[in-house]
Amino acid sequence: MKPVNLADKLSQFSTHWDPHVVADYNGNDIMVVKFQGEFPFHDHPDTDDFFLVLEGEVTLDVEDRSHTLGPGELFVVPKGVTHRPRAENEAKVLLIEPAGTPNTGDAATAAKKPRI
Amino acid sequence: MKPVNLADKLSQFSTHWDPHVVADYNGNDIMVVKFQGEFPFHDHPDTDDFFLVLEGEVTLDVEDRSHTLGPGELFVVPKGVTHRPRAENEAKVLLIEPAGTPNTGDAATAAKKPRI
């Protein structure tokens, strides 16, 4: 039970598409992640997917539309909806997913989500 | 399914301790709220309580400790833990609670949480 400084946590790693867990909320992982480049299209059949941009610019390709988000903008991708995050330049993002959700939608290719 | 600009949403109301729902995530209300002054001590017996400071400074009195949070700092109060948010000057906060959670811990005194 202590405050979590997101910038401090983000300074602890430099890898992209590598979410790190910083807090728990009712069985959900609260994570910070750095995006750069394109992630694969995927979906999460059992959960919504929460993105809040902290720094930089992120584009979410969601079905047949693209949504560009800047700092202080959030987007919730509903469960089962195919999406792809991408960022031309490095962007920093707060993610929320139920603990154990594979970030790629597939446990075989998912990131490990270390806790920091 | 569209981006939510938190500053835009916060500009739509001026009341304090009056959370407004801006998005849904797996049955949780994603809310923005303005704090100023002291809220009553309370707890939520069935849910954790998520706070992320967007602007200004918030103090959370949690059991026998006080935690001061600035922008980009979050805190999760575990379920059942007594807490009181307060802010000397206006602060803007992102909150997450399961839909229907009374913000005071008591349905009789809870805010209505309008959707914007």
Question: How would you characterize the overall build of this protein?
Answer:
2 copies of one chain form a homodimer. Chain A is mainly beta. Helix content of chain A is about 5%, strand content about 50%. Chain A has 1 helix and 8 strands. Chain A has one helix spanning about 5-10; strands at about 5, 20-25, 30-40, 50-55, 60, 65-70, 75, 85-100. In chain A, strands 2, 3, 4, 5, 6, 7 and 8 form a 7-stranded antiparallel β-sheet that branches. In chain A, a hairpin with a 2-residue loop joins strand 5 (about 60) and strand 6 (about 65-70). The longest helix of chain A is centred in the N-terminal third of the chain and has 5 residues, at about 5-10. The mean pLDDT of chain A is about 95. The interface between A and B is medium-sized, with 35 and 35 residues.
Task: Show unreliable segments of chain A.
Answer: none
Which structural class matches the secondary elements of chain A?
mainly beta
Strand content of chain A: over 45%
The arrangement of helices and strands of chain A along the chain is: EHEEEEEEE
Task: Describe the largest sheet of chain A.
Answer: 7 strands, antiparallel
Number of helices of chain A: 1
As a percent range, the share of helical residues of chain A equals under 10%
How would the global form of chain A be characterised? globular
N- and C-termini, Cα separation of chain A: 14 Å
Mean pLDDT of chain A: 96
Largest interface: A-B, 35 and 35 residues
Q: Let me know the number of strands of chain A.
A: 8
Oligomerization state: homodimer
Whole-angstrom Rg of chain A? 13 Å
